[in-house]
Amino acid sequence: MADKKIRVGVLGASGYTGADLLRLAVRHPNIDTTVLTANSHAGKPIEDVFPHLRGLGLPPLVTVEEANWSNVDAVFCGLPHGTTQQITASVLKSHPKVKFIDMSADFRLRDADTYRRWYGVRHQAPELQSEAVYGLTEHYRQDIAKARLVACPGCYPTAVLSAMLPLAKLALIDPSQIIIDAKSGVSGAGRGLKQNTLFCEAGEGMSPYAVGTHRHAPEIEQEVGRAFGSKVIVNFTPHLVPMSRGELCTHYVRCADGTTPDDLRAALAAFYASQSFVHVLKAGEMPATQHVRGSNNVLIAVFADRIPGRAIVISALDNLVKGSAGQALQNFNLMFGLPETVGLEQVALFP
Predict the structure, then answer these.
(1) CA 326/CA 129 separation, integer angstroms
(2) Which of its termini does the chain have fewer beta carbons within 10 Å around, N or C?
(3) Whether pTM exceeds 0.70
(4) CA quadruple 78, 150, 29, 347: dihedral sign
(5) What is d(CA 286, CA 60) in angstroms, rounded to the nearest whole number?
(6) Closest CA to 165 of 124, 225, 205, 216
(7) What are the residue numbers of the active site?
(8) What is the pLDDT of residues 235-278, one digit of tens each?
(9) How many CA atoms lie within 13 A of 66 on its CB side?
(10) What would the pLDDT profile of 6-22 be if each residue is shown by its tens digit?
């Protein structure tokens, strides 16, 4: 497998996640990109949509209907939520050996009724939902390696769950006392035209959005609750920060009886000691989005709160890499028996 070329298609190649997937994939020694879809830009070369991808030998953009799925071994899907399920079902029905790595929200929620409540539409492929594996690589590695369909987590859940799941699994924190203050760069809102992401609206300021209603909340609760073995409701508030990339989540937690912030740091460090991309910082070290920009890394730090018995856990990642395309490529590597780090060795871009 080390020298084998794996034919790859990208659904939604004209979005930010699709573009970052291509940026990584063109330097992956095992990937041969054969199909790129973008209905609104069909017929164009990719450099007409993303000039930074010029001269890389990538195929022209086509519509989903024109795509030749018999010419791919794996599909990365970067389509908006609500548009993925029927396409995925159609491709897998006609080409059952194709592996799907979905970067949308359409297969992340394990319960179809929960999906309907939060996304406002009925799930169109419930038979595939039961097959989908949640793609948080460090926590579901063995299942991902055997999967045909992987649902990559959202960017916020990746940052949150990387910090919270080891603590939840070891019952080191109180499940009823999790407060998450989350901040993301503007690319997290996608490439579509939205008033709140216009330069004059998002620049020179910071604003909360989807307060109490963000669709990543049930995804976080699903996985944290699974780790605790009971239903969990978190306090999650996202904010838009005027930068292109980056995500920083500050978690305020109550330590379990007899547990200290130092215990939390030690548990996280032990859990991620052998992991390539998740790094737990030493006491006093501070994570920052500029230290992960362009990389597939997650930085986690733990601080004692001034309030006795509480801790502050901070995580940072690049929302387009580990929060999306990079984690998708990490999962692709597992699904095809490749070393997990292939194509993801790039160091963070600083300053």
Answers:
(1) 23
(2) C
(3) yes
(4) positive
(5) 43
(6) 225
(7) 155
(8) 999 999 999 999 999 999 999 999 999 999 999 999 999 999 99
(9) 15
(10) 999 999 999 999 999 99
